[in-house]
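Sequence in, structure out.
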Amino acid sequence: MVNVFQRNEGKTYYFRAMINRKVYYESTGETNYNQALKKATERIKELKGQGNYQEHLKRLIDCISALDVEERDNAINECSKFLLSGSLVKMKISDALTSFIEKPRNIEGSKSTINSYKRVWGNFCNWMNDKYPEKEYLHEITEVIAEDYVTDIWKSGVAEQTYNENIKNLRSMFNVLEKSAGLSGNVWKSVKKVKVNSVSKQPLSREQFFKLMENAQGELKKLFFIGFYTGLRLGDACLLKWSDINLKSNIIRKIPNKTKGTEKYIEIPLHEGLIEILNLKNNLLSCNKNEYVFPEIAEKYLKDAGSISRKVQKVFKDAGFKTTVERKRGVNKAVVYGFHSLRHSFISICAEGGIPAHTVMELVGHNSQTVHQIYQHTTIEQKRKAIDTLPKIEG
């Protein structure tokens, strides 16, 4: 039988019990005898391992939910740590990146994508070693720690894109590793991204493009023509193969590197001018179909993609373009003129020619936002021209 009692003329009831040769002496927290007796009975059942564990769990959840945010997070972490201490389902923070990369299908694609994950995780691990050196396992990273980390990133003055890249990559890693690391959830889901005040690449007029071509030589000059006539991204243009080109149908058919995992092709009709510039009819007859259209550029790009970007920027600078502007945030300046400008030029010229936006999106494999912005701008100009044709009426 359970006995409860008051001590030293106090109002709160206590109980004492011996279970498995261990003495428990606890307060019920109640001043009403019947309520105290009920609580003491429930507590002794818990200590004996009796009763429904779901009831005990509910009381624990209610108790933790009533705590302040930081204290609640610490309590959840402590409970998780205890529950996982005897489990094989846990993963060291230092092993997370390797486990993530080795998972099938997760980050297939460009070397730069993999390097992005390595850079983000490396920075996070260095920060953890400095701020929370006692944390060893992935499940010990809480929402409070996640918020603490992104706050420090933001205070460091990084650009909005870099800030969002950190959140995106960390969310992705925790999503993939959730089961194998024994995580109870993804702590990065509650972290909000920020609005990006992006600086868009500027399209080129025909005159600017001709001026640019005066400063380009050899394969690089032909690469610029590919960008101008097809809207391909730099990497896709550099690694274009003869097998991607079909002269019977006059089409370039290629899977963009950005959507490599989806097997989604884009098909771009060949402009007559491009066929002549690249001398495609003769080259396609004599070439190895698996060879790159620009073998020297492809070799350099595969070794160091940045080297080609730098060569491209030099052509712009030599042609008199101011290629960068200051950002509101971040260390590096924003590039406003570069190879991507050719892609924007392609979309703009299509818009001016009346080609529907959805058709252009299929041609370039582009996201709708950028295409929409260019078409919206074109529509406004068309409206302005329409308004200007109205007769002027004297008042």
